[in-house]
Design brief:
Blueprint: E1 3-5, H1 10-19, E2 23-26, E3 31-36, H2 40-50, E4 59-61, H3 65-69, H4 76-85, E5 90-95, E6 112-116, H5 121-130, E7 134-135, H6 150-157, E8 163-165, E9 177-180, E10 187-190, H7 196-203, E11 207-208, H8 212-218, E12 237-238, E13 248-252, E14 262-265, H9 272-292, E15 297-300, H10 308-320
Parallel strand pairs: 1-8, 2-8, 4-6, 5-9, 10-11, 12-15, 13-14, 13-15
Antiparallel strand pairs: 2-3, 3-7, 4-7, 5-6, 9-10
């Protein structure tokens, strides 16, 4: 049963978030499905509740720019845009700080993070009260229309999440503009609540992202709501491993195969939510430690093609895809 909480129940909503429960809340754009961004199990539950087919990076919400910039590296353009448009419907994609405490799953394993400060007073109050970054895509089942009222959230996610904080209709009603500031020049990844012309008035010409077909081929986009790049380890990845050798690092699911040089178990109990929460950290650890120990590749045990297993297998397949040889100058 999903509880509908009034603004007076802000303390309860904040406590639920800190504890790892999912809470939908209003922003000026649409209702977001919030999870404690530092809690990998909570972030995995977002993908499960939405039926989201891939681990797309999620937008992390903060009460102010100072809190956001504690997790990402903000250069001059980012600070100018934040001063002009935050709080507001603008998301900035920026490099993660090494000390960033946001779980890797929230950023889909990338070295970047999408951050914003929402303008809705109830959202800001919730973020201050929760005192954790909140990862939040739109609070609807994947592929359905984004919700702009609490009832819309209940219609799609009732029974799948802990609570909805009812703040009335969302005033903007379209998602935030997403701007990537990690490349040679700023790139618009998604149009939204802040007009492109207003952004260009602050920082000059903004480029356009690759078309989606090209983005999927190159896996170059870093935005929520778009096809994206992903974390690919340096060691080759072998899928559907039924045996393992002493030269391989093992990414296990369930009882681990014997004989590996080292092992990271996604979930000994075969829990897909736990596996999703541990996937990117496991790939990074096996890559670094396996390389240090002279392993030749990572062997990944089979994961069921159901529920979150679809997203886990999608990411593993991308990690195992053949590397393109670098172009010659």
């Amino acid at each position: 049963m999903t509880a509908v909480l009034s603004p007076a129940a802000l303390d309860r909503a904040a406590a639920l978030l800190r504890e790892g429960a999912l809470v939908a809340f209003p922003t000026e754009t649409v209702y977001g499905l919030g999870a404690n961004a530092r809690n990998g199990r909570a972030v995995a539950a977002v993908f499960e509740a939405k039926g989201r087919p891939h681990f797309n990076p999620l937008i992390c919400h903060y009460p102010d720019a100072e809190a956001a910039f504690a997790d990402v590296v903000a250069e001059g353009r980012a600070r100018r845009l934040a001063a002009r448009f935050w709080p507001g419907p603008l998301t900035l994609v920026l490099p993660r700080r090494p000390e960033c405490g946001v779980d890797l799953l929230a950023g889909a394993g990338l070295d970047t993070l999408a951050v914003r400060v929402p303008a809705h007073p109830l959202a800001l109050a919730l973020l201050r009260q929760a005192a954790v970054p909140v990862a939040a895509p739109s609070a609807n089942r994947s592929g359905q229309v984004s919700p702009t009222t609490a009832q819309h959230v209940l219609d799609g996610l009732g029974g799948r999440i802990a609570a909805v904080l009812d703040g009335g209709p969302c005033p903007v009603g379209v998602e935030s503009t997403v701007l990537d500031l990690t490349g040679a020049g700023p790139a618009l990844l998604r149009p939204g609540g802040v007009p492109l012309e207003a952004i260009e008035a602050e920082i000059g010409t903004v480029g356009r992202a690759l078309p989606l077909a090209a983005a999927e081929t190159t896996r170059s986009l870093r935005s929520p709501g778009l096809l994206l790049s992903h974390y690919a380890p340096g060691l080759p990845v072998r899928l559907d491993a039924r045996t393992v050798t002493a030269e391989e690092a093992l990414l296990a699911f369930g009882p681990p195969l014997p004989g590996a040089a080292l092992t990271w178990n996604l979930s000994e109990a075969g829990d897909l939510a736990e596996a999703a929460a541990r996937l990117f950290a496991g790939l990074r650890w096996l890559d670094a430690e396996g390389t240090r120990r002279g392993c030749t590749r990572i062997a990944a045990m089979p994961v069921p093609q159901a529920g979150l297993g679809l997203a886990i297998n999608d990411r593993l397949a991308r990690a195992a895809a053949p590397r393109q040889a670098p172009r010659q100058p």
